[in-house]
Amino acid sequence: MNSLKKKEKVPITTMPSVDEKCCYNNPLGCFFCIMKEPNSSIRSNRIKNYFKKMSLIDEDQELVLVLSGLWTMAMSQPNDKELPSLGIFECMTSLINKGINHKSWLHKNQNIYIPYYAAHIIGSYTMNNVDFAIKALDCGVLVPLLDLSRGNMTWVEQRVAIRAIGHLASYDKTFKDVAIYEGEIVKLAMKLASTCLEDVYKEFVGLKDLNMRLKYHCDLLTRGVGGLEMENRKAEEWASQLQCWSLHLLNCFAIKERCLNLICDQNFLKDLSEMWGGLANDTSPGGVGLVRVLCYNKDGRRCIAESKDVIKNLCTRYKVLEVVSMCLVDLVELRTLGGKSNVGNTITRTLLDDFKQRKVKIKNNGVQQVLEEMWGLKVDRKKREKNMSDEILEEKRVMVSLMKQQGNNSFWLGKIEEAMMKYSEALDLCPLRFRKERIVLYSNRAQCKLLLGEANDAISDTTKALSLSSPTNSHAKSLWRRSQAYDMKGLAKESLMDCIMFVNCCFKMDSSMKKNMRIPYYAVRMINKQMESTWLFKNAQLKTFADLSEKPNHQPHDELQISHKEHINVRGTRILLQKKGFMEGLSSISEEHQLIEKGDIISRRNKKAVFTQSM
């Protein structure tokens, strides 16, 4: 922050509620009384006059209250032409300029809120209306918005300023005016996207002394309602929005192939591959969306292909096959996904298209082997089983059941490798149409691979089981086992998503069992662990601790670490365990390593825990 230092806090009273509207004695009259004027001509003239002289009002509480009301109207009626036609953009521009250029006025009582609301109002009116965007630019809003984006105040004002500039840049009719400052805007957006999480953590979330948090930040975040947990949650959402809106602004330039030489900086592309949307903006594609746009351009594709941290070998189809085949092969038996049918068949056709004729172009032996196996499964084997009689099918079903039971017995005796071989033999024999039997075999084999430390193979088998399940991704034990496998590989986000889906499956049981259902303790533990690992500010926190540890004679912020960990655990546990409880049963994979030793017999309780329902 350039002009607002946290240690030099100014006295700020509690932010007034929008509902606390009352008349103020000033020559312009009460704005809310003016809005109630039944005569449209009189009302318009008085509103126009009010906007012209609004920046001269001395009563700071009235200003903030009026702006809060205007923001509410802009959010609820963004296409209403009345206020934009009467000078609201000129008014907001003058208020932002006054806040930036007159620090003594800005720090007087509640005036500190004014630039935030003014920028937010501009962004709300220009969000979906190109005519309002044109009018706003004609009124000179861009320069003061840029001043806020440069960090002349704080990250809170940067968030709404970048949002507004992004709306102005998204229309063809207004882009050329924004592009006058394209070099600076692109650099600002790149910097904000890369550093905003670290900045918000250092300036707000990670402050050891909560009294150092700017009070007006807390008020804006919580709207005067909620405590520490609400402040942290909203700060996380707003930081995510600031990053997503910065990426949207960059998209506006990239889609027009402007400033690609700046955006395709290799250091930024590395950061870009780690940015993910969806926390507060459900439709935001995050960094991947911008990568896709960059690939529309030849130079952009070249830069992406040269970045090992983004996407490897994206230039040609056959190089892509070498990357994705090892993963997509597990999905070839998907029936439906996201409302689309025959997904597995589509994947199969894509990967096997002209495979027999053109496989020479694929240099990777592992990929060639995978595609050969896929051909054998989806083409050759399917043809052999197509005319198989009911008697033969029933014989195979019985044999598969027997082999599965042999595998179970071996597992219970601690002979994990032998059990895995039995499940593999059963899978080779089991007809493709017996989907339920194959789900269990894949899932049980994945459990063996987990215990043998083969995380990649376990992920592959559980993915195959989940692809066979109906509906897709509904086999609870496979979700839990894949969550453990992802955890072994350090893939916290993937592990968290599977664990949450596992908990959902636990509660999608028949009504007679729901009454006694409890969330398994091991799932709660996994979710708490992964929520801490996937916390939006995790990298910023680690970097802050690293920086502090390098300073001489400086003690690490142990209290901050404990505070954050407790915050994550309380947050996760409260979401999952309110009015619920714990259920003992499945152990974690690390515990199962201790339980299963070669030649030892697993206890009856652990047998049931590992194999109930699946067997």
Descriptive overview:
The longest helix is centred in the middle third of the chain and has 27 residues, at 228-254. Strands 1-2 form a two-stranded antiparallel sheet. Strands 3-4 form a two-stranded parallel ribbon. 66% of the residues lie in helices and 1% in strands. With 615 residues, the protein is mostly helical. The chain contains 34 helices and four strands. A hairpin with a 2-residue loop joins strand 1 (336-337) and strand 2 (340-341). The chain is elongated and about 95 Å long.
Task: Please count the helical segments.
Answer: 34
Categorize the overall geometry. elongated
Main sheet: strands, sense, barrel: 2 strands, antiparallel
- Number of distinct beta strands: 4
Mean pLDDT: 81
In short:
The chain has 615 residues and is an all-alpha fold. 66% of the residues lie in helices and 1% in strands.
Provide keyphrases for this structure.
TPR-like_helical_dom_sf, disordered N terminus, two-stranded antiparallel sheet, ARM_7, ARM repeat N-terminal plant domain-containing protein, ARM-type_fold, mainly alpha
